[in-house]
Amino acid sequence: NAGVTQTPKFRVLKTGQSMTLLCAQDMNHEYMYWYRQDPGMGLRLIHYSVGEGTTAKGEVPDGYNVSRLKKQNFLLGLESAAPSQTSVYFCASRLRGMSNQPQHFGDGTRLSIL
Amino acid sequence: TQLLEQSPQFLSIQEGENLTVYCNSSSVFSSLQWYRQEPGEGPVLLVTVVTGGEVKKLKRLTFQFGDARKDSSLHITAAQPGDTGLYLCAGGNNDYKLSFGAGTTVTVRA
């Protein structure tokens, strides 16, 4: 039972490079989320999706794009990486419904931008 | 600006001691969740509280939701090294999103 799987687990980029982080869930969840976690700042929402083909901005969306072409996958893209985007990125998913539904998280992608 | 403020930021105690972590806000939430995160892993849900004044127990962990649904606390009795981790509170308001606190890092020394 995989749950939420994130790839890659680690990545080092140079400033200006682009990359895509992949999140896959096998729980048939409708809602999916991308967060970044920085020391002392908790989890901040980047973008989220409430269904296939739909995406919305979260708290810190600048510099990121997302796509949800299939229900089970949620992609996070960095078009031109900047050192300020060095962080740990977490994907989460949950069932539709009220916000008291639990979010299920992947184990994160550790991204360093040099 | 964090909607949810957690205190303390760090807590280090000896095995067998008790501890309390606080989560406060000026906003009302319809539900409050507590997650625990271990190094190298994602957060895992511990509990959800939805009613003002609600108290839930999970073995040695006791969770309370404030009467006004603006604050919550997590109390651990007789802490063990396995309780070590980052504790995050998160508030929801019947929409798609959660607002997370910055977390409390708990270290229990053997």
Order of helices and strands of chain B: EEEEEEEEEEE
**How many helices of chain B does DSSP assign?**
0
Structural category of chain A: mainly beta
Shape of chain A: globular
Strand content of chain A: over 45%
Q: Summarize the biggest pleated sheet of chain A.
A: 7 strands, mixed
* Percentage of residues assigned to helices of chain B: under 10%
Average of per-residue pLDDT values of chain B = 94
Oligomer: heterodimer
Distance between the termini of chain A: 36 Å
- The Cα radius of gyration of chain B reads 13 Å
Biggest protein-protein interface? A-B, 25 and 27 residues
Helix content of chain A: under 10%
Low-confidence stretches of chain A: none
In the predicted model, the low-confidence regions of chain B spanning at least 5 consecutive residues are none
Q: Report mean pLDDT of chain A, rounded to a whole number.
A: 95
Strand content of chain B: over 45%
Label the overall shape of chain B: globular
Number of helices of chain A: 0
Could you give a short account of the major beta sheet of chain B? Answer: 6 strands, mixed
Distance between the termini of chain B: 36 Å
